[in-house]
Write a structure and sequence with these properties.
The chain is 40% helix and 25% strand. The chain has a six-stranded antiparallel beta sheet, with no helix packed on it. It has a six-stranded antiparallel β-barrel with strand order 5-13-17-15-14-18. It has a five-stranded mixed beta sheet with strand order 10-9-8-6-12. Strand 1 and strand 2 form a beta hairpin. By secondary structure, the chain is an alpha+beta fold.
């Protein structure tokens, strides 16, 4: 039997065929120690091999399981396939009846802006490119009445208090509400114009003094005002001289009396006028007598026709007499008209004679010359007065801007001299391009927003709203103060109705320019009511409304008549027609 050593299952070395044979040069104790060292080292190597095989086996099992699951997913029986293809069993879709306050709200966005904003641009008195030549105010300054805001190409721009917007250059001779507004502002500043709404001499003097106090001269109505006034004055002087000469000539000719030709012509004209009067009177008399004859003939004819004993000869004579009387009346009328026309023609000829005689009369020529000279003098006087009234200092459009509220805060302003390409916004150190050289913000802050088409019927003036500053989460109660009467197209291309919201209390100044959330409660149930989704309410052919309630453990719902109320946010307030027909927590059908 072999004596080579083997190891048992625990890694211990055993001798097959007999006990171990110790080495010749080793004692029994050394051999035993060697066996113990081998027994201690052998289990470590074997354990590692067993772990490797165990991990490999587990991995193989996982791979086989996954592969089997995948194959199983793709392999199914025909019954399984039919079961999966069939639609699921229909079931009721329900919602819970709630009790709460239902509000119909409009939620939108708005921009906080000053109640009054005034933009200052280059005045019309500036010729060519507008250039900032002097800076009057800076961002954040407070502008009071009379403040010079900026100087453009040497022309000043002032601010005054007033509601009427500037729309024209104010010139001497003009009148209107804008002129009255200017006069009132000048009066508040210490000047003395007439407050009558007419740009007269007193207003010209006040404007000139106001500009002079600021170191400027107001623009004139024309560059040739002085020359035009001198020309008009010269024309008046010449007209007065001509009138003086004509009056001297008339005095000389009057001393010699009137000419015989003119006297005779005047006598003939007087006679002709008397002839018209006499002829008219004679014609009227002849017509009157003829009318009396007609009346007699009518009476005679009526008497004969009414006499039963009258013969035919009597009737014929009465008829002939009436016809003759009518003919005589018509002839009198024709003769009178002809005679009057002849008399009037005589007057016309006489008037021509007087006119001819006057042309040969030195006295009358002098009279006419004096009249013409007087008319020329009066025309020259009126022309000079008109020129004086409409000439002189003006307020060029844009040199005085009016703000409804003062003082006003300077929101934007030019910061550098030169071409007016830009003006920085408040709080912006850079030059943000804007068309306004200076922008004034006055009054309290308001919120501008737009009601979308369809929402305008839900809002009205004086309706309360809530403004939310989402940066600070502060809410500001406000009121709708303005709603546009017609829709306009916004910058986003959508139609809407511009609105203005006025806060109930002043908003902080730092909110100017902020975009805020606006909530408008258009309608409310006021108190808690039963509400269900809109989809749960249906109408019957008779116009009544109902909801379908699915009771606990019930398979089919039952209809419950209700009265629908306010609808908002996908819900509708309902009230059961029958007492206890609907309660909080009931399940109403909204679909299947």
């Amino acid at each position: 039997m072999s004596t080579s050593p083997e190891r048992d299952r625990r890694g211990l070395q055993v001798v097959i065929g007999g006990p171990p044979t110790p080495d010749a040069d080793r004692g029994p104790s050394e051999e035993a120690d060697r066996y113990r060292r081998d027994d201690m080292a052998a289990p470590s190597n074997e354990a590692r091999r067993r772990r490797v095989w165990w991990l490999a086996g587990v991995s193989a099992l996982i791979i086989v399981a996954v592969a089997g699951w995948i194959v199983g997913q793709g392999v199914q029986s025909s019954d399984q396939a039919a079961s999966r293809a069939a639609p699921p069993e229909a079931s009721w879709i329900t919602a819970t009846v709630e009790q709460r306050v239902l509000s119909q709200t409009v939620i939108s966005r708005g921009d906080v802006r000053p109640q009054v904003s005034v933009d200052v641009v280059a005045p019309t008195s500036v010729e060519g490119e507008a250039v900032v030549t002097n800076i009057g105010v800076n961002v954040g300054d407070e502008a009071v009445e009379g403040t010079r805001l900026v100087e453009i190409s040497g022309r000043p721009v002032f601010v005054m208090a007033g509601e009427v917007p500037v729309y024209r250059t104010l010139k001497p001779g003009m009148s209107g509400a804008d002129v009255s507004q200017l006069q009132q502002a000048l009066t508040r500043l210490g000047y003395t114009p007439d407050i009558d709404g007419k740009f007269g001499q007193a207003t010209k003097d006040a404007v000139t003094a106001f500009y002079a106090a600021a170191g400027y001269t107001p623009a004139l109505t024309s560059d040739t005002v002085d020359a035009d006034l001198a020309t008009a004055q010269q024309a008046l002087t010449e007209a007065q001289s001509a009138l003086d000469d004509a009056e001297d000539a008339l005095v000389k000719f009057t001393a010699t009396g009137f000419s015989p030709e003119l006297v005779a012509a005047q006598v003939e004209l007087d006679a002709a006028n008397r002839g018209v009067v006499d002829t008219t009177a004679g014609s009227n008399s002849a017509i009157y007598i003829a009318q009396l004859e007609v009346n007699v003939a009518v009476n005679t004819n009526n008497r004969v026709l009414g006499d039963p004993e009258a013969t035919q000869n009597d009737v014929d004579q009465a008829t002939v007499g009436l016809a003759q009387a009518n003919a005589a009346l018509e002839q009198a009328r024709r003769d009178g008209a002809s005679q009057i026309a002849t008399a009037r023609e005589r007057v016309t000829v006489a008037e021509a004679g007087v006119a001819a005689a006057e042309t040969t009369s030195d006295t009358n020529a002098a009279t006419r010359a004096r009249g013409n000279a007087l008319a020329a003098r009066e025309g020259a006087t009126a022309a000079l007065a008109t020129l004086i009234a409409t000439s002189g200092p003006t307020v060029a459009q844009g040199e005085i801007v009016f703000s409804p509220t003062l003082p006003a805060r300077v929101q934007t302003a030019a910061t550098t001299l030169g071409p007016t390409a830009a003006a920085p916004a408040a709080g912006d150190s850079g030059a943000t391009a804007t068309s306004a050289l200076v922008t004034l913000a006055g009054g309290s802050l308001v919120v501008s927003m737009t009601a979308r088409t369809g929402e305008q019927d839900l809002v009205r003036v004086s309706m309360p709203v809530e403004v939310l500053d989402e940066q600070t989460n502060i809410r500001y109660p406000a009121t709708i103060s303005e709603i546009a009467a017609s829709a306009v197209t916004g910058t986003d291309g959508q139609l809407g109705y511009p609105m203005v919201l006025t806060p109930d209390s002043p908003m902080p100044a730092e909110l100017a320019g902020a975009n805020v959330r606006v909530t408008i409660t258009a309608a409310s149930t006021q108190s808690e009511s039963l509400v269900v989704p809109v989809a749960a309410v249906s109408s019957a052919p008779d116009g009544s409304t109902r909801v379908s309630v699915l009771r606990a453990d019930a398979v089919e719902p039952v209809d419950v008549p209700v009265v629908a109320g306010l609808s908002a946010d996908g819900f509708v307030a309902v009230e059961s027609v029958n007492p206890e027909g609907l309660e909080v927590g009931d399940r109403v059908v909204v679909g299947r």
